[in-house]
Amino acid sequence: MSTPTVERAERTDPRPHGAPRRVGPMRTMRHGLTLAGRSVRKIRKSPEGLLDVTLQPILFLAMFVYLLGGAIAGDTGEYLQRTLPGVMAMNMVFGSLGTGMQLNNDITKGVFDRFRSLPVARSAPLIGAVLGDVVRYVVSIAVLLIVATLMGFRIETNVVSAAAAIVLVIGFALCVCWISVMLGMLVKSQQALPGVAMSFMFPLTMGSNVFAPTETMPGWLQAWVSVNPVSKLADTARGLMIGGPVAGPLSATLVWMVALVVVFFPLALWAYRSRV
Amino acid sequence: MTLTVRAEGLVKRFGTTKALDGVHLAAPAGSILGVLGPNGAGKTTSVRILATLLQPDGGHATVAGHDVLRDPVGVRGKIGLTGQYASVDEELTGTENLVLIGRLLEMTRSSAKSRAKELLERFGLSDAANRAIKTYSGGMRRRLDLAASLVGRPEVLYLDEPTTGLDPRSRNQVWDMVGALTSEGVTVLLTTQYLEEADQLADRISVIDHGRVVAEGRADELKRHSGGQTLQVRLSDPDDVTATETILRELTGQAPTANHETGLLTTPAEDPVLMSALVRGLDEAGITADELSLRLPSLDEAFLSITGKPATAGDSAREGEAEDDAA
């Protein structure tokens, strides 16, 4: 990136067509939205691409609730109430894999080079991919909530709190996805990505309090589980959907979200620049 | 004469390999510049730099008045890119792809749609407009790539090996389309490994090898550069070959290349008078010929004499590099 002084020094150069030197933020956002529209169009064309974020969490939920819920909580109904907000949180981490897959595909197939040969900001394709995924997450959460309701889940707080939980969970997804974006840029082939991604997804999702209370775990595991961002997000979502403390876990979640963006957004951008 | 594309001394290193070692290219407005060379010569790297997808380590380049390093966005507003990379989305339809590009170029929805329709018609893809690209044949796909690079009515078009892997019919279609573009004033930079393609399409050719431009000129200049003309005789009766060989040896002082089965003889012809002398000689001997011609060497022969190795791409080129490294 050029420093402001360099920019000013260059301004003396003739610009015969008066074309902009950089793409402004408004145009970048507009291009990002156009490219997000492309992702949405692709979801509509092949909805089976949504199975990873719709079917998988339902399977997890059903398996844990009916198979283990009785053993863990003594009652499957109570276990469902406690687990659903956590599965919602966990699903965002698994769902972020799709972002990395899509971007890797675009780069290896050369679609990104086409975009980059247009007068479009370099970040627009990244913004587009990430925004397009918001649609996937919304569909995913909607399907999960419908199925959970059929299974007997009930919101115990109010609609506004529950909606806040959904917004927070999607916001978290937008922060954690930069890990996948970075990995998507670094791995050579799309096939290699799920394996590599599991190495960070598994500790985040399974090493959390989503399925079992932290107190039942050995001390060394408790140390991780009690700071794990997915645990914090799950606690917040529980508080907002079935009642309980919100302020504490929410502030921890927000700190995590900022930290994830501060660390992985620049890394993802660096990986993107070095790849394309 | 204004140069729409001007590259001076471009250098690009990838690790320890020097992909470009001072490449100069110049394409006057409205012309087709052919960049000819084997695989790994630096053609694609040059195009990627001129399309602002890659930054050079040295040298500079301007495209349609914009400097590729100082004003890449300005360059991108003037160019179209079609090639081995710069692809379209396989899951979207032809129309959707072109409209998407139009929208990214700040067109309104309706003008992007009408531009897409117009281009699909022009490239004979109207019937396939609403089919996903993954169902397209290789030739259709390449035509759509070409259409995609023209959405923004670029002043400069880069075609990076536009016909590699196409069957002859599709190749001819692409050639016709490229020819039609220059009549609209578009400046085209075309890279190719095929001499025939450069010969057919390009106004001027830059021959590139090992990251350097080793020859530059019009096709006929390059051919002449590699030696004089060749005289070719095809006899009606292959039995006359021996007698004709004697006549040619007397006229030129060297043995011609002769094929006793096909009755075809060729010999270098530095002196244009040779043709009429041969006609008289054959007439006196009562030999008839089906074909008698004086031609410039092919670009293949020219390439061989310029680079010291055949123009066949791939393995032979890499072998050549290995030999050079060993030397």
From TrEMBL, chain A:
The record's section on Pfam families has: ABC2_membrane
So where does this one cross the membrane?
A: 50-72, 84-103, 124-153, 159-181, 193-212, 254-272
Annotated region described as Disordered, given as residue ranges: 1-27
Q: Where in the cell is it found?
A: Cell membrane; Membrane
> Topology relative to the membrane, per the entry?
Multi-pass membrane protein
- Please verify whether the record's keywords include Cell membrane: yes
GO BP field: response to antibiotic
- What are the ABC transmembrane type-2 domain coordinates in residue numbering? 48-275
Give the keywords, sorted.
Answer: Antibiotic resistance, Cell membrane, Membrane, Transmembrane, Transmembrane helix, Transport
Q: From which residue to which does the signal peptide run?
A: none
- GO cellular component, as recorded: ATP-binding cassette (ABC) transporter complex
In the UniProt record, does the keyword Transmembrane helix occur? yes
InterPro entries for the chain? ABC2_TM (IPR013525), ABC2_TM_bact-type (IPR047817), ABC_2_transport (IPR000412), Nod_factor_ABC_transporter (IPR051784)
Q: Name one GO molecular function term.
A: ABC-type transporter activity
Query: So which domain of life are we looking at?
Result: Bacteria
Bias (Basic and acidic residues): 7-16
Which family is it part of?
Answer: Belongs to the ABC-2 integral membrane protein family.
Record's protein name: Transport permease protein
In its UniProt entry, the species of origin is given as Actinopolyspora mzabensis
UniProtKB/TrEMBL annotation, chain B:
Topology term for the membrane: Peripheral membrane protein
Q: Name one GO molecular function term.
A: ATP hydrolysis activity
Whether Transferase counts among this entry's keywords is: no
Q: Which of UniProt's keywords are assigned here?
A: Antibiotic resistance, ATP-binding, Cell membrane, Membrane, Nucleotide-binding, Translocase, Transport
Q: What is its main location?
A: membrane
Alphabetically, which GO biological process terms does the record hold?
Answer: daunorubicin transport; doxorubicin transport; response to antibiotic
- A single GO cellular-component term on record: plasma membrane
Return the Pfam families for the record. ABC_tran
**UniProt-listed SUPFAM superfamilies:** P-loop containing nucleoside triphosphate hydrolases (SSF52540)
UniProt keyword annotation of Transport present? yes
Family annotation (PROSITE patterns): ABC_TRANSPORTER_1, ABC_TRANSPORTER_2
Q: Which residues form the ABC transporter domain?
A: 5-235
Locations listed in the record: Cell membrane
Q: Which family does it belong to?
A: Belongs to the ABC transporter superfamily. Drug exporter-1 (DrugE1) (TC 3.A.1.105) family.
Q: Which NCBIfam families match?
A: drrA
**PANTHER family from the UniProt entry:** ABC TRANSPORTER ATP-BINDING PROTEIN, DOXORUBICIN RESISTANCE ATP-BINDING PROTEIN DRRA
- Protein name in UniProt: Oleandomycin transport system ATP-binding protein
- Protein species of origin: Actinopolyspora mzabensis
